[in-house]
């Protein structure tokens, strides 16, 4: 989540309040999943038990980061808590123990000793008996950095052990991937061993044989799709290996899928692992020094000789392609915007080079050539025609949208009237919140004086807090409405500016397309349909 700007102040501490507005922070990391006592539920119990006899502690919100590391602080729950601190909603943070806040000693120390202090926020780690409000805290001074260093060392040690175990498994010839490569299946008795998949291994072998025969990648893809062979992701879906919809894809073979198979040594019976590594909690390509090669770990689908021959041919094709001097392409102002109306696939921009005069660019659908023959009606349109047509359509639609709208001065007056109404509603709700808080303060005073029992206090307090929560939600919704009105005016002014620029220059730019157009579809008859980002949302009731 985006962080709000920090405003450092050196103003004196505010006068003490009857209440402490608390943020409960809970973090569960991957290494904690196997440890008793670290679950989210357990942390909640510890924190609630701590608050049970503290009626002056009011929980503002509970922030949870589930399955996230403690070695960095780029966690959504933690960042939201910081935003609420800086908004003045929180003056106390409570965690189960210091390691929940983080395991990086430097950053953890910064938040406890500097950030929280600068924002007048009290910090409590329950099981470590640490409280920044306690001047006699025995865990302060040298003990706090020491505790943080121990937590950091623990985290680093766990990480090193996991990496060491994984690399040793690679050296031993164990397959450590989550799913078996296409053409193989995992041994049901040993998930680190690969067995031939009788259903897909012949497909892999055929792909290599085609490549050896110098069949082009596009042709290989077409062959596979026309033969009705399920793409790897769809096949693994049928076997239950893949369940996530985001990993399934279209079901059609793609050139990148075939390339990945042709580049993989696993089909020779060897395992080459360690091609990627984790840097700052992100997976990146590793150097060759990181590779671990284990020979003859499983039954091969192809020979080493066939694999080597295919790699040499592909390298030759690549070098020949690079050797041919090419003029640079002109920028594609329609990048990611133009689609086939029949099959829905993105249209390919292709150049026709000319010895005299500028090159000609075309947009056309590759479905029939790269997916399967006769699966699409086909589309082909010259770029100059597309630019001229879209420019005309855009000029007309902008004119219509603005013509149906109120004049700018009327729109501004209407928006101001609406904003004044929203401000009035927000003011009334803020007054009501303050009223509810005064009632809560009165309850607490009555509780301290013995007028109310503990049960009566908590029951009445819960009712008032629920009202505050509802009112706060209402205010948040009204604030969003205010922002929406401001955004509306900004969009209107931008649309007016774009319409004026286009009417004067008749020049279509990539920036204009990105701002105003969502999608362009072209059918077999070269009819163009444009889906716009803007709409006539500025109409006034009086417009006819």
Automatic annotation (TrEMBL):
Note whether Coiled coil occurs among the keywords. yes
Q: Which Gene3D superfamilies match?
A: Putative Large Serine Recombinase, Chain B, Domain 2, Resolvase, N-terminal catalytic domain
UniProt keywords, alphabetically: Coiled coil
Highest taxon, organism lineage: Bacteria
- Return the InterPro entries for the record: DNA_bind_recomb_sf (IPR038109), DNA_bind_recombinase_dom (IPR011109), Resolv_N (IPR006119), Resolvase-like_N_sf (IPR036162), SSR_resolvase (IPR050639), Zn_ribbon_recom_dom (IPR025827)
Q: Where is the Recombinase domain?
A: 181-320
- Which residues lie in coiled coils? 468-495
Q: Which residues form the Resolvase/invertase-type recombinase catalytic domain?
A: 21-173
A molecular function (GO) term: DNA strand exchange activity
Keyword Coiled coil found: yes
> What is this protein's record name?
Recombinase TnpX
